[in-house]
Write a structure and sequence with these properties.
The chain is mainly α. It contains 17 helices and five strands. It is elongated, with a radius of gyration of 24 Å. The chain binds adenosine-5'-triphosphate and magnesium ion.
Amino acid sequence: MEKIILTGDRPTGRLHIGHYVGSLRRRVELQNSGEFDKTYIMIADAQALTDNIENPEKVRQNIIEVALDYMSCGLDPAKSTLFIQSQISELCELTFYYMDLVTVARLQRNPTVKSEIQMRNFEASIPVGFFTYPISQAADITAFKATTVPVGGDQLPMIEQTREIVHRFNSVYAPVLVEPKALLPENEACQRLPGIDGLAKMSKSLGNCIYLADSADDIQEKIMKKMYTDPQHLYVSDPGHLEGNVVFTYLDAFCKDEHFERYLPEYANLQELKDHYTRGGLGDVKVKKLLNNIMQETFEPIRQRRKELEKDIPYVYEVLRKGSDVARETAAQTLSEVKNAMRINYFDDKELIRMQSEKYIGE
Ligand code: ATP
Ligand code: MG
């Protein structure tokens, strides 16, 4: 069986460092690993509209931002198919058929849908499209017969829902669809990176982000002035706490031993730094400076590549147009297999036409 990747992001804002550690960094590694037959990366504009119906222009404007972020991080159109969800109408058709395979109660139990409904104050009036987006996500994944979906931890219930739909479709109709597996980031910090305020998941919709496109000064200001640490750590000599301390969570996500050689050679690794912090005698400013150095080193080359790409926006749209053409062909092939399996292929089914005519000729 072919090994195929599909994943994507909603164009509701520029991408942030939560996307980077949650999925983007891994995608680029997988793309370059040569282990996969195909990689599809989708800008999920139709899904973004499900909770941004008052603000379609936001979605429209952010498509190019997400594409620029993708390519500046190393997603390469020569190796990956980058495309826009709404341009593949086959995905809507698949969604419609999959709707018959899922109950309202099952959607209501989906923990991600539950928490996102709460976050958006949708309790009293949930748009149907939003409520059913796990089904459209199943269409996205299965249209490309994806085996591997690299995502952050919040997406696990979506992949589970997709697997159920695949299972049900294959047992009711015919084994056409492929069950995907989620690929989660290696450590907990990366699965659900908190916002700089430490309150919730870093999320475009919450404004608690460090963006990939932030300038060096923006990053420094967000880390040194805004980032939440340990409120009980008033004096350097006080013992500090790691739990809920965003600076350490970010270090967990970004720091490698080699960074200590470059920026803080008095420690061998992150564990030694953590031990000192919890013992007392290590100030927040020193830890924040280390994080700032690491983040600048990580994001400087990405920012530079973005600047280059920004000079030729028509080229980036062309990449998306070509990618969408390729994606449409693949999705159309799957849709045709799905319709055959569901036996809604009346005009191609010579046997059906013959039997129906015999019924009447026989009378
Ligand atoms: P929105 O607020 O519009 O939902 P978002 O910031 O949650 O935006 P999505 O486009 O929904 O971003 O998510 C895209 C991908 O990034 C998903 O795989 C998701 O799991 C991952 N992701 C998003 N936020 C984080 C985060 N804070 N930490 C780790 N992964 C994340
Ligand atoms: Mg989200």
